[in-house]
Design a protein that fits this description.
Elements lengths: L2 E7 L2 E6 L3 E6 L8 H23 L6 E10 L7 E11 L4 H15 L1 H8 L3 E9 L11 E4 L2
Parallel strand pairs: 5-6
Antiparallel strand pairs: 1-2, 2-3, 4-5, 6-7
């Protein structure tokens, strides 16, 4: 992978990936996200892709997935991420154990971004909830929330 970064004025930069796809990075966070924002977005997208693919392979009826990412940075320079919290919201009548397995596989094996954050010293944690379309048979709770 090759990325070119071109100065576009006012602390804005145009990033072009492999000469094909471009996006703006705004150091002032006025017209677009900052470089540090994109790091968190990359982590959220990376793990989302993994979880969706794994649940599809498990033939789970996932209707939608939203991953909220919250990051805390060090107070002093370098202001690296020290804590990252991921909250997965899975929509559909999916099996809780399979969702947890998909998240764990993403966090510990497949998501390069998550592993990179962890190797840099960031504390990466997650929680999840399942928002069911309709209560499955023999389950009393329609929505399940958990934090491992």
């Amino acid at each position: 992978m090759d990325i070119s970064i071109k100065f576009a004025g006012d602390l804005r930069f145009i990033a072009t990936v492999d000469g094909k796809h471009s996006f703006v990075i705004d150091g002032n966070r006025i017209t677009n996200a900052s470089a540090m924002d994109f790091l968190l977005a990359g982590l959220g997208a990376c793990t989302s892709i993994d979880v969706v693919m794994i649940l599809q392979k498990m033939r789970e009826p996932l209707r939608d997935l939203v991953v909220d990412v919250h990051g805390e940075r060090a107070n002093e320079h370098p202001r690296v991420y020290t804590d990252v919290k991921l909250h997965y919201r899975a929509f559909g009548n999916i099996n809780e154990e399979k969702l947890v397995k998909a998240i764990e596989l993403s966090q510990n094996r497949y998501c390069s971004a998550s592993i990179m954050f962890k190797r840099s010293g960031a504390n990466v944690t997650y929680s999840y909830e399942i928002i069911r379309d309709q209560p499955p048979e023999n389950l009393g709770n329609n929505n399940i929330s958990s934090q491992p």
